[in-house]
Amino acid sequence: MVHFLHPSRVPRSLVPPDARKDAQGWRVVQEEASPYPLVDICLNVLIANLEKLCPERPDGTLCLPEHWNFPQEVADHFLGMMTWQGRLTDKTASIFQGNQMNLKLVSIQKAKISASAFIKYFCHQKLIEVDATAVHSDLPVPDIIRGLCSSNWIQQNLRCLLLDSASVPHNSRPLSFGQLTGLRTLSVFNVWFHSEDLANVSQLPSLENLDISNTQVTNISALLTCKDRLKSLTMHYLKCLTMTKPQVFAVIRELKCLLHLDISGHKQFRSDLAFDLLQQKDILPNIVSLDISGSSYITDRAVEQFIQQRPAMQFVGLLGTDAGYSDFFTAKQGLKVAGGASLSQILEALSRYRNRSCYMRKALHRLFTETFSVHVTMPAVLQLTREQVTQLDEDLFMAVKELLAIVKQKTTENIDDPTLLFSLKALWNLTDESPATCKHFMENQGLAICIQVLETFSESTIQRKILGLLSNVAEVRELSAKLMTEDVVKHISTLLHSEQIEVSYFAAGIIAHLTYDKQSWLLCDLQRSALLQDLHASIQKWPSSRCKMSALVTYRSFKTFFPLLGNFSQPAAQLWALWAVYHVCSKNPSVYCKMLAEEGGLQLLCDIQVDGQANPQAQQIAVSILEDFRMHFTSYRRFPLC
Question: Torsions phi, psi of 30, nearest 5?
Answer without folding.
Answer: -90, 125
